[in-house]
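Problem statement: downstream parser choked on a complex file, so we are re-checking the raw output for the L-tyrosinamide run. The parser issue turned out to be on our end (a line-ending mismatch), but while we're here, posting the original submission so the record is complete.
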Amino acid sequence: MVTKNRENGVLEESKSKIKLPPLYKVMLLNDDFTPMDFVVMVLQTFFFMDQEKATQIMLKIHTEGMGVCGIYPSDIAMTKVQQVNEFSRQNQHPLMCVMEKS
Ligand code: TYC
């Protein structure tokens, strides 16, 4: 972008001032009780993964303790967290979905 320097009025090339929105990782935490097929279904339903990808991510969470399901702007990330946690509670599972600044 070309802007005028405040001090000397000279036109200068400067970095773009356009700010990208902050992004958040939406993650699932492992627990000992939620069935694996429920987690796979959550990943397919709320994060639009196919069966293979969902199974791969579920197993990663199961072995490593947590895993990233997607990266979104804050309002979308908050909605995903709310929807997944509400859905898990409705189905009597302790599955936890959380978000963290990316
Ligand atoms: N650990 C669970 C089990 O053995 C499966 C599981 C995977 C639970 C991922 C939560 O985010 C999770 N049934």
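For whoever reads this later: Strands lie at 2-4, 11-13, 23-29, 66-73, 96-101.
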